[in-house]
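Input.
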Amino acid sequence: MHTALVICLLISLIVDAGMVVFAVTRRDRSRSIFSAALAAWLFLYCLGYLVEILCTTPEAAMAALRIENLGIPMIAPFFLLTALSLFQARLIKRWMPAVAVTYGFIMFLIVLFNDSHHLYYTSIEMVPYGGAYYIVLGRGPVYFLQQAVSVMFMLIAYGMLFTRFIRGSSKLRSQMTLFILGSTVGFSANILNVSGILPAGIDPTPFCMTIGLLLFSINLFRHKLMDIISAAAYTAVETMDDAMIVLDTDWGFMFCNRSAEQIFPQLTEFSGTEIITKIQDWPRALAPGASSGQVTFRHARDDDGANLSTYRANISQITGSTGKQTGWSIVIRDITDMTVLMSRLEELATTDPLTGILNRRQFLYMANRQLDMAQRHNLSMALILYDIDLFKKINDTYGHMAGDFVLCSIVDAIREQLRSYDIFARYGGEEFVIFTADGDADKLYIFAQRLCAVVENVQIVYEGTHIPVTASFGVVQIPPGAGFEAAMRAVDIAMYEAKSGGRNQVVMGRIAELPN
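Output.
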């Protein structure tokens, strides 16, 4: 029996050491650090117990117990932290590991100076057994306090685990099964040992806990629970402005930072591997099955759907050390301000800053595109050019501010008469141009006459003074294939004929260079 126990403990030490190595080599330091610490504390427990069963004097046995108690008080708290890190990570607070280590250190000091107070072990007796010795310990009040605290930590962990297991998805349950089974083996052995049911000198707890840890390892390796998040950048990810969401290969939720929770508040309720599309109004552009790349989407943070923001998301595969995909990362940047700025810059580049309608450059671009389309479909177009009559006199009489007010007032009046397909622009100074699809000459003339009457009848009052205004209009039809420059020359001539003929009238022009 003695030899078998020694062999089991040696195997346990090897397994524990392997678990430490396995955990610290994982990519996700934020999770693996707790598993590594749990394996390290269990290693010390097994080492101390191995030394204990080889001892022949009370003094040597006490030294072994001190080694054991470097690890024993830490096991239950770090089991809880390991369980939280794997299945309920957002519940872990910064102070928890510090409290666990502080508690364990205090317990170690109590055992270290046990000879002076006997609060932990009241007595140590070496009893011969089959050519060796086993130790009979008198248990003091602090011993039972430490056992009660350990049971409390374990019960909290079990409560959390079983709650997550019951409420979780089938995939989450698969990930938790071996973890729960392994912890149950170790916990049950500890309860049996404390209860005194087992034969004297036999404590299966270290070996059973090692079996449990081995099951943890198999579970972690199978589901790659510590390979998803690149923990070297954990702090940076958690505090960066961009939102980051980490998913497994089936788009099950694994991790998100605070910025992601601000965009999708429902993420605060995610703690397992829930499919990310459970989020209400999850963007279609980020639907499962999307390939790696960049997408842009709009999303409302408010419950009422107001205040839409624009986001750019980068979807990337996460690969493990073997090159096999282990998950997905989605990094989301709020580009609302940039979009507004770009829109504003585009507006400044394409519109007249005074009147808000198209500028000459943008008008020429759009008119030429329409002419190309008209030529392909054998359609006639039309061009209307008007100029404010005696505008220099208005500026000289009422001032340039009044002149600007007149231009804007007339633009507003004209714009109310235009159709959605009409292209309206300031061509230069007090000249304005309208590109339209009217192909019938009579209807075109009537339309221009109506615009001319609108200008004459608009009531312009600037600083209490009424300013009468009229405009002269030139109109020309553009047959299929005719160029814009020829049309512009013809409409310009027609407009000046309207001015020389008495102003405040419409003159129909004609393109001289008709296409063959």
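The chain has 16 helices and 14 strands.
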